[in-house]
Design brief:
By secondary structure, the protein is an alpha/beta fold. Helix content is 33%, strand content 15%. The structure holds S-adenosylmethionine.
């Protein structure tokens, strides 16, 4: 579940601790030289709001450093190494923290994978490294929320003749828990049609673009047209601050026990089937449901509930006019951003384009929040985070790569 609530601030004073220990520092940046895992180990728990990184790809580049990641003999070793780094990252993120991970794939060759212990490791095989890594991270507790596509309109043409040129890379969005910071409003894009057009396109029976009753509203919401372009039809009644169903169910269950009542009795009083009523008292994620407005009101009377949940169960009444979301629509999970080159790249040869970093961080970096890139290279993540008003922790093995970022910070 996403939330736009204020991010947890991280431990008090942790930014100052992080900043003062860094090799290069400013008011809003702290750059460490060293192995990503080792540096992360020294950072406090729950002190960083979001991460964006592109680690060295497997078997792609020699960065000329004995501690570098990416030159492991075997791709499994590479995945395990990154996994260990990201375990530390998990620890340093706040509970509502997020992690954007861009990583490229590799083809197996007899030379890059000489041992070929497993049958699938065949010559010319696309190794699916990003997805193997993503699945390993899921096993480590990360929640994968998106596999976004970074499409490169100016991808390098390739001379291969027996497959297609690769023009995109995955960008995974992971969350640490199911309540994380994601500001969709910051990245909405304009609708293709205006409200009047959408209203005219609404179901025939809809007078002046208004939904007539629940069924019509539901039909409209489920229509392909709505799914593809409308995002944010105002619901007639909603509870914007509703608690988690499991939280309310625990409360209801306790109230039921305190009064010595049974669900069967409650179901009878409500005039509802037992099977449905039971869900309001189930405290497991799968089976738990929030009662609808009128049921909630009746439950309050039946169980003599106190006012603990009154505020968050409050209903907001909107109109039922078909309309676009005023701030635009969800941009979708594909970003088409040209590869960076020239001055933006400095002396680094695997630079993330600034547009990609901005797109990601606008959604996950809370105002004044802290962002980290454990493989910062020329520091695109840092430039983006600081421009968006945040603070930045960067880690890299090589001082000459981070110089591009430090120069920009001095200006
Ligand atoms: C793909 S590049 C990152 C590029 C960066 N996103 C940018 O926009 O410039 C990977 C970086 O990881 C660094 N690196 C390699 N092994 C590392 C390690 N063990 N710890 C920290 N950094 C490492 C490399 O020096 C390189 O700068």
């Amino acid at each position: 579940m996403t939330s736009k609530k204020k991010a947890t601030p991280g431990k008090a004073g942790s930014w100052e601790t992080i900043r003062t220990k860094a090799d290069y520092r400013g008011e809003r940046h702290a750059v460490y030289l060293g192995h990503a895992q080792k540096v992360l180990k020294g950072l406090p728990d729950g002190s960083v709001h979001t991460a964006l990184t592109s680690p060295p790809y497997w078997s792609a580049r020699d960065y000329g450093h004995s501690n570098q990641i990416g030159l492991e003999d075997d791709l499994d070793g590479y995945i395990e190494t990154l996994r260990a780094v990201f375990r530390e990252l998990y620890r340093v993120l706040t509970p509502d923290g997020t992690f954007w991970l861009n990583v490229g794939d590799s083809y197996l060759h007899y030379t890059t994978h000489p041992k070929r212990r497993e049958a699938w490791k065949r010559n010319k095989q696309l190794a699916l490294i990003p997805f193997r890594l993503a699945m390993a991270l899921q096993e480590d507790g990360w929640i994968l929320r998106n596999t976004a596509v970074w499409h490169k309109p100016n991808a390098m043409p390739s001379s291969v003749r027996d497959r297609l040129t690769n023009t995109w890379e995955p960008v995974f969005l992971f969350a640490k828990t199911d309540r994380y910071t994601f500001n969709l409003d910051a990245i909405r894009i304009p609708h293709k049609t205006d409200d009047a057009i959408e209203r005219n396109r609404a179901e025939k029976g809809a007078a002046k673009g208004k939904a007539q009753g629940d069924q019509e509203l539901r039909r409209w919401l489920n229509s392909p047209r709505h799914r593809s372009s409308i995002d944010g039809l105002k619901e007639v009644r909603r509870r914007p601050n509703a608690p988690r169903a499991t939280e309310l169910a625990t409360y209801l269950k306790n109230a039921l026990a305190a009064k010595g009542l049974s669900i069967t009795w409650v179901a009878d009083q409500l005039g509802l089937p037992f099977e449905r009523t039971r869900h309001y008292f189930r405290t497991d994620e799968i089976g738990s449901r929030l009662p609808p407005e009128e049921t909630w009101e009746k439950l309050k009377d039946l169980l003599d509930l106190d006012t603990e949940f009154d505020d968050c169960m409050e209903v907001e009444v909107g109109d039922n006019v078909f309309r676009n979301h005023p701030l635009g629509k969800n941009p979708g999970d594909m970003a088409s951003v040209a590869l960076a080159g020239g001055a933006a790249a400095g002396n680094h040869f695997a630079v993330m384009p600034r547009g990609l970093a901005d797109w990601a961080l606008k959604a996950t970096l809370p105002p004044g929040g802290i962002c980290i890139d454990p493989f910062m290279g020329s520091g695109t993540t840092g430039l983006s985070a600081i421009t968006l008003g945040g603070k930045f922790i960067g880690i890299d093995l090589k001082a000459d790569y981070v110089s591009h970022f430090l120069e920009k910070m001095r200006k």
